[in-house]
Amino acid sequence: MKVGYLGPSGSFTHNVAVKAFPKADRIPFANITEVIKSYEEGLVDYAIIPVENSIEGSVHETLDYLFHQTDISAIAEVIQPIKQQLLATAQDKPVGKIFSHPQAIAQGKKYIKSHYPHAQIEVTASTAYAARFIAEHPDKPYAAIAPMAAAKEYDLEIIGKDIQEIDENYTRFWVLGHEPYVFDLIKDTQKISLALTLPDNLPGSLYKALSVFAWRGLDLTKIESRPLKTALGEYFFIVDVDNSNHDLVTFALEELRVLGITYNVMGMYDVYCL
Length: 274
Known about the structure:
Elements: E1 2-6, H1 12-20, E2 25-29, H2 32-40, E3 46-53, E4 57-58, H3 60-68, E5 74-81, E6 85-88, E7 97-100, H4 102-107, H5 109-115, E8 120-123, H6 127-135, E9 142-146, H7 148-154, E10 157-160, E11 170-176, E12 186-197, H8 205-214, E13 220-227, E14 235-242, H9 246-259, E15 262-273
Helix pairs in contact: 6-7, 8-9
């Protein structure tokens, strides 16, 4: 069995892949789009991608690709605690440029501003790629924001420990696949993720869409708008719904159809915690 993930080794996605699929052949890819395409093209049996961080919000590359360019859906969600480290090739090294993924940079911006106010920031495709890059350039005044696993993977020193602004920092990862998989992880709950497209001629359409869940007592854990990429001011809405009562959710989806509200199921899955 082959599992694709956002690499390289030492990334948070790699850690999720190791914990979720300990015996699989794990294959790293350079960016989220390549991970999803590897699954679309049949290069891997499952794919693991980040979908949302508790501090910085949704990973738009993931959501937009899944909505606009494919009909793949998630079969599981894994929640990973996030601890960001500032890494360098030596403890006493001057830092002139800091590399990392945009989400990691945003999570550590307060620390960077306080300790390295003059350092340049450069964006990379993943935190682990940033760690590998600075390890390959030990003569440069470079540092990277990356997980502790990346420090071990690339023999780097931790010059700033747990630099994320908020301790309660978590990232949701989706597992894409056609077949259900039994994970040896702690199961938390069940959810369904929907992408709602509202009709133009239905006043109060968003209110009506959400009410089909509200009056049934179905808990919404997320709602977010994203551009439809058709015209200015046109959006689709991503809604995560508690799916512990399958019958009530089925009735709610039927009511959406009656109202003329189009929906795509982006995933119907169990949620696991690391």
